[in-house]
Amino acid sequence: MSVLSIRTIPDPVLRSQTAPVTPSRLGSSGLKRLIDSMYETMEAVNGVGLAGPQVGIGQAIFVFNLEGRRGHVINPVIETWGDITHEPREGCLSVPELYYTPPRAQFAKVQGVNSDGDAVEYEGEGLFARMLQHEVDHLNGYLFVDRLEGEQRREARRAMVSSKFMEATQKINSQRSHEISSTFGSGATFGQATS
Question: How, per the record, is the cofactor bound (predicted)?
């Protein structure tokens, strides 16, 4: 296993639609090593989820560890329902130090397969549902800031082009690089839990 470099904006891989993992890769030792490395990377930066594009992998895969539930989903299909909520706040280690409340469905369920090709399903509400929606968005080339509306959207756009944000992103990437001690470089994932 290895701690992988996590991509931050404006890396174009974060805006790319992922390809499905092919059936021939399911069960392979290479895929299992990748998933183990994604878990290790996510945990090294205290993330609660990590999607393939965030580590430069253009395939439909994500890992998570939230609310006592740890898992991974390959080729997920998401279903959402319930009221649209704006809480709790979201962050993303690919968009460091910005926290907002994008609208998300209260409930979500993803179905897909695990690394062995066995069917998996995860369902939740609140923060867990928000995480599922956030990670699937990554696989479709969207960041949580793309879901913002109104003044929050304008504020996020201004923040992401500011020199202060760019300097903070460089500083965080440098710090994470040293903390992780990775031979792969610096990094950032989904978000850290915020209070």
Answer: Binds 1 Fe(2+) ion.
